[in-house]
Amino acid sequence: MVGVFVLAGAVAAGAVVLTRGTQGSDRQEPSRAPGTDGPSGAAGPGGLRDAVEAAPGSTPSGTGDGKRYRLTAPDTILAGTYRKDPVTSRDPFREVDKQTLAIVGVTDAQSVGGAYRSDTTAPSLKLANFGGLWGGVKDPEATVDNMFRTLILGIQADPTGKPELEGSPKAFRPSRLDGNAVMKCQKMKTTDPSLGAQSFTVPVCIWADSSTVGVVSSADATTILLHQDPSLEQAADTTARIRLDVRVEITR
User: Fold this and answer.
1) Which of 109, 121, 249, 250 falls between 20 and 30 A from 41, CA-CA?
2) Region entry Disordered: which residue ranges (predicted)?
3) Which residue(s) pair with 200 in the sheet?
4) Model pTM?
5) Which ranges of 169-231 does DSSP label H, i.e. alpha helix?
6) CA-CA distances (angstroms) from residue 174 to 93, 179, 223, 244?
């Protein structure tokens, strides 16, 4: 199920498209993510850049704990039940410049990423792909919305025409999501060469707080093999748990 490892990177791919667009006269601007503020479809005049530049004047969602955090990609997550895959792990934002990430809503950004597998084998194998940013985030909710917009750009740039978003991003507040963090999740349908022509649906969740942003896509082999619809609520809870595992307080 290598396809799940591609999905979180689609956000970074959209940011790369945005980067290339800002370097020329025909700047690429993503469509608004369905369900985010403003109409769906093509972005209005100024597109993503105008939306982000307006964000500092908006009211941040909640208050933080006053601490600063960075993100890591530890060898294990989720109480040691998932281990990092050294073959597929990568930093999906490595090729995205800081100026572009500032447009999305993260200033002075640094990045990290990792692909994880459960210790179990098929058909009970579980996967999680994580891509993260840390720096300054003035408006967590606006940043989450902009990350979903760059996800749309990444999908549009996929030469295979896949994957496909289903529905709209939905807000979730798992019990483990603390402080001013905002999280939204959306389902995405994709195909995997290792599974032939079979398509499957994977949840993608994005969080943002005052200093970190994370994109997590997760998959359960049992759900895929039985053609079951994945639970966004469960995906949100898993993402909140991963967030706790990868955040480290900056003490100085």
Assistant:
1) 109
2) 21-70
3) 190
4) 0.81
5) 221-225
6) 26, 12, 22, 12
- Report yes or no: 90 and 115 within 8 Å, Cβ to Cβ: yes
Q: Which long-range contacts (CB under 8 A, 24 or more apart) does 190-197 make?
A: 190/3, 190/6, 190/7, 190/162, 190/163, 190/164, 191/3, 191/162, 191/163, 192/1, 192/2, 192/3, 192/4, 193/2, 193/3, 194/1, 194/2, 194/3, 195/1, 195/3, 195/224
56 burial level (CB within 10 Å; 0-12, 13-18, 19+): exposed
Q: In what order do the strands lie in the sheet with 199-208?
A: 76-77, 82-84, 107-118, 126-136, 212-220, 199-208, 182-191, 164-172
Judged against a pLDDT cut of 80, whether residue 130 lies above it is answered with yes
Q: pLDDT of 171-230, one tens digit each?
A: 999 999 998 999 999 998 877 666 566 778 889 999 999 999 999 998 888 887 788 889
Strands 82-84 and 247-249: unpaired
Residue 66 has which token pair? 């006053």
How remote is the C-alpha of 224 from its chain's centroid? 21
